[in-house]
Amino acid sequence: MRNITLSRDDKYLLAACWLPKGILVVETKELKPLHWIPVKGKISALYALRSQDKALFTLRDQPKIGILDTKNFTIKYVSLPEPVEDFFITLDEKAIVGSLRKGKVLHVIQWQTGKVLFEGETPGMPHLFSAAFWYNKGHFYFATPHLGRPWITVWQMNPWKFVTKINTGGAGFFVRTHANTPYLWVDNGSDQIVLIEKRTLKLKKKVLIPGKKVLHTEFSGDGKIAYISIFDKKGALLLLDSSTAEILASLPASLPVGKYNFRNKERRYLLSSLGREVFMGKCWGCHHQTQKAFGPSFRWIIRHRKKSQIVAQMIDPAKVSKHLGYKRNGMPQIPLNRDEIRALLAFMEELK
């Protein structure tokens, strides 16, 4: 089995398989297999969309993307420029970001048509499964390690562009972050954890247990605690404060590898997590998540107004405030792009 994903309505678990090649559909209440869908090719990864009843997969050995309808379980194929080894789905779910193991280019591809929207040179295959996402000053970014290379690269999303390459001092496998930590947490094959400040991209390193390899970082659901694997027969699972990187506890473990928090790995929560970062950057001065401040709380807004009204007020607060019955407009005109608005709405939905 390669990986699993959940359909948008949570009714089906979809498992991408290599032996034999295909997709197994399992109902989630009693975990009973329902359908076997043969696939002529080795699936790279399978991910469900959250905006449509579809799941996307690419093939390692064929230049195609498969579009699986998660209602009737039919597959439509779209041709790609080359086979895609690893990919993730963009925040607006209109494209995929993919790479080829032996290739030197990162592609942003419109999955419905196969049209290439952006290409960037990437010496060394990006490990896009472990890419980390964050928001800063009006733009969304991701960082990815490169297999066998002593660096990570940072990219801006929509508009797409390469930002920088950061030498981490050794070849690692993972870049992880959370809305509640100021850092990208990177392993580099040594006894150090590499911390990169998301706003400035400044780097610092910290030895956790001398001589013992740091391998993988994961966060608690609220992002306050970082869990780090110390990969050694006499290793440990370390718990660190995600703001200060101070060790809070050490749990003995033999050769611990990956550990994943469902909320942090499930795609449906990524946009709301980024929305929290937009909220803290542009809305927090006047609004609180759940309590009234200068303006109403985000929870009150999402419970009492239509999404169309919320979006309209974000775009033109002076005009919409009159429509909502306010005698005067107290909300300033704050520049917000479509991705910021989409992220803020997702964050509001989580507060219902």
Rg, rounded, reads: 22 Å
- CATH domain topology of the largest domain: Methanol Dehydrogenase, Chain A
CATH superfamily of the largest domain: C-terminal (heme d1) domain of cytochrome cd1-nitrite reductase
Give the strand content: 35-45%
Classify the helix fraction into a percent range. Answer: 10-25%
Category by helix and strand content: alpha+beta
Oligomer: single chain
State the CATH class of the largest domain.
Mainly Beta
* Main pleated sheet: 4 strands, antiparallel
Low-confidence region ranges: none
Strand order of the largest sheet: 1-2-3-4
Number of folding domains? 2
Number of helices: 6
Average pLDDT works out at 95
- According to DSSP, the number of beta strands is 24
Order of helices and strands: EEEEEEEEEEEEEEEEEEEEEEEEHHHHHH
Q: Termini, distance in Å?
A: 36 Å
Give the overall silhouette.
globular
CATH architecture group name of the largest domain: 8 Propeller
Describe this structure in words.
A hairpin with a 4-residue loop joins β18 and β19. The protein folds into two domains: 267 residues, C-terminal (heme d1) domain of cytochrome cd1-nitrite reductase (Methanol Dehydrogenase, Chain A, 8 Propeller), CATH 2.140.10.20; 81 residues, Orthogonal Bundle (Cytochrome Bc1 Complex, Chain D, domain 2), CATH 1.10.760.10. It is globular, with a radius of gyration of 22 Å. A four-stranded antiparallel sheet has the order 1-2-3-4, with no helix packed on it. The protein has a four-stranded antiparallel sheet with strand order 5-6-7-8, with no helix packed on it. The protein starts with a strand and ends with a helix. Helices cover 15% and strands 40% of the residues. It is built from six helices and 24 strands. The protein is an alpha+beta fold. α2 crosses α6 and α4 crosses α5. The longest helix has 13 residues.
